[in-house]
Structure formats: C-alpha cells, structure tokens
Amino acid sequence: MRLESPVVAAVLPISVVFLTYNDEQLIDDGLKSVADWASEIIVVDSGSTDGTLDIVRRYTAHIAVHPFENYAAQRNWAQANIPLANEWVFHIDSDERVTPELYASLRQLFTGTQLNDIDGILFPRRTVFMGRWMRHGGHYPVYHLRLYRKSRGQCEERLYDQHYTVPGAVIKAHGDLIDVISTSLDAWMQRHVRWAGLEVQQQLRAEVVATQVEGKLTGTPIERRRWLKRFVFGRVPLFTRVFAYFFYRYFLRLGFLDGTEGLIFHFLQGCWFRFYIDAKLWEARQAQRNTR
Questions:
Q1: Which one, out of 40, 183, 219, 257, has a CA that is 20 to 30 A from the CA of 168?
Q2: Quick one: how far is CA 175 from the chain centroid?
Q3: Cβ-Cβ contacts under 8 Å for 42 (sequence gap 6 or more)
Q4: DSSP-based three-state secondary structure for 141
C-alpha cells in the first residue's frame, strides 16, 4: 500500500524515530509518509543485511546502529542516547505509515495552542492484512500513544504488548496510523511464535511485578484495554477465554464482515495466537509445579 504525500506540507517540530531490521520491502512507504513534514527523521537499525539502509539514506543521514534486545529497550535507548532536535518525538515501526489525514490533524494541533498543557497525542492504528483493512472485530479504532514530549514520556519496559506512557494529559488526533501487515503467513507465524514466548515471560513476571500502564475502566483507551485484558480476560480460565474472545470478536463485534482476509486474521491473531500463549503458559506453570 502506497500513500500519497500531502500536496502542500508544513514542517512540524517533530522528531520521527523508526526502528529497522531487514525491512527493504516496507520502510520506503513509511519514510515517504513523513518525509515532507517531519523536521527530523532518525532510523535506529539492528544490523540490516539487505537494502534497508540504502533506502533510508534517500530520506535521512541520521542513522544509528544498536543491537536489538526488545522493542521497549530499543525505543528507550534511542530516546535516551540520540540527541533529538525537537521536544516532540514520534515513534513509528517500519511497517507503519502516517495518513495525510493524520498529518493534517497534527498540523492543526501544532499551529494552535491546544498542546500547551498536553504531554501526548493519541490516534487510531488501522491494520491492513493481505491488502484489506480490518475494520471490524473490535480491531478499529484502537488508539495508541506514539507522539509525546520526549522529556515526559517513554515506552513501558514490557517484553511484549508495550505501550508508551506520559504522566500528564493526552489529546486525540484525527486520522490513522496504518499498519501494513505485508509479510508472508510463514513470516507472520514465526513472529507470533516469538511474541507468544515473550508474552508468557511477561505474564509470569506480572504475577509479582506491576505493569507501568495502570488498568483503568474510566481511563484512556489504552488504560481501558489494559484493564479489560487484566481484570476480564486475565481472570477467565486458560483456553476457555481464548474461544470466548474469538466468539466475541468474530461474531459479536462483526469480524466476519472483513471477508476471507478477516477470517484468516481474526482466527490467527484472535484465537490461534491466544491459544498458543495459553498453552505455553500452562506448560510453564506445570514445569514450575514439578520443580517444587
């Protein structure tokens, strides 16, 4: 999916940070979506061996190379160690693109006084899977905090399902950040197998260590999602919760309206992935019991 840049773009005082690793098939559209209006673009690469950095150099000379540990550590390392030119930092993944509508909304916010007492900006992420927008199943709109004052925010130190946190007020912007899932199903499955292992490690840790984003039913969209995951989904028995969640997502939240692509996506991401996490969690707890 390619996005046309705005015809007339005003440069905004925002430092955009991309993470890359062998992303030559994805990164060009992401960079292009911010090139006309971001006053600074920084790429933190984890040692790409393909043509990723050749593409990056068409847009910016600000390239840092740092070994990858996990997303949170990489994001926070970039923010702590790279001198950013602007007060506002925007974290974007290599498979994400800023829509012209989101740019227009940000332009309006940054040319007014609405951000004077604001620490961060929320906007929805639009998932595109196999070329189709996943509009249903409760998957849109899902708000994320990716743009905030660098002195006020950071990525929470979780192994998986990280969110960004700020202590002060946040505001919503219009327009979407598009997440283009364009890799093969094999690559998708391999990534999720790895993420399932990280989620299990995080859940075992979470039994004794509190998360940074507090779950609040009356809080921000991010806090509400964390509350639902922890106090609703998290309290239903293993495996039962997986099928209940898929039924809720695919039937009650109309995920079936996303067609064949939606069936594949909602089943794999909303059922298979969650079942695999529960299976690994059960396995880990059994191993703990057997060693006592």
A1: 40
A2: 16
A3: 15, 16, 17, 18, 60, 62, 63, 64, 78, 82, 84
A4: coil
Give the mean pLDDT of 146-160: 93
**What span, in angstroms and rounded, lies between the C-alpha atoms of 255 and 183?**
21
Segment 211-267, tens digit of pLDDT = 478 788 888 888 888 889 888 899 999 999 999 999 999 999 999 999 999 999 999
Token couple for 91: 């974290």
Tokens of 185: 């199903």
Give the CA dihedral 253, 257, 261, 266, nearest 10 degrees.
10
pTM (predicted TM-score): 0.90
What CA–CA distance (Å, rounded) separates 236 from 241?
5
When pLDDT is averaged across residues 261-280 and rounded to a whole number, the result is: 97
Q: Which residue do the tokens 């900006």 mark?
A: 121
Q: What is the DSSP string of 213-261?
A: S---TTS-HHHHHHHHHHHTGGGSPTTHHHHHHHHIIIIIT-GGGGHHH
Q: Which helix (H) or strand (E) holds 91?
A: strand 88-93
**Which one-letter DSSP state was computed for residue 6?**
P
Please report the pLDDT score of residue 173 as a whole number. 97
- DSSP string for residues in 61-77: S-EEE---S-HHHHHHH
